[in-house]
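Journal club prep — side note

Before the paper discussion, L.F. wants everyone to see what a predicted structure for a comparable chain looks like in token form. Sequence:
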Amino acid sequence: MTEQRRAPFPRPPWDRVIAWVAAAGVFAFLVVVGVTVVPSALAERDAMVADGVRAHAIGGVEIVVPQGWVVTGGGDGLVVRTPDGGLSVRIDAADGDARTVLQERLTADLGTVPSATVGPFRSEALASGLQVVHADVGERDLYAVVGRAGDGAVLLTATTADGRALQTYRAALGLLLDGVRA
């Protein structure tokens, strides 16, 4: 007796389609996670919490970042953040006249600098004997050059997060400025 084999039922393509759609969804999710999480994780990889003692060299200037602040970068520039993350300050080496450096950076960052947005340049002497020339930009940003003429200086670009007012962080900025040594 011979057995008769019956032809198998054709499999519907939906199981493969669903598998491919699920795989594409997982792949898209992994790409989104990689694009959003990986860059910030790499940036924070070299982050350290300042001890308030160690000096960081930037150009010809050293800066002691207040204790508890988060420090990233090095060499030609640093980014420091307050412990609550509400204030972020980019610190770069600056060469030349303080007012010229400020004007050039403002123009580079903002394009044409409207006088209604940028407050007047103010010049002050710090307790350390260094000069600071600064300008407020709106309610959230401050640009400042700290140093001695011809001795090296640093450019600080401070920005607050989440719509916080810069006024809230004036004391913290003062601590940071006091840490600059030329």
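L.F.'s comment for the group: The chain is about 30% helix and 30% strand. Keep this in mind when we get to the figures.
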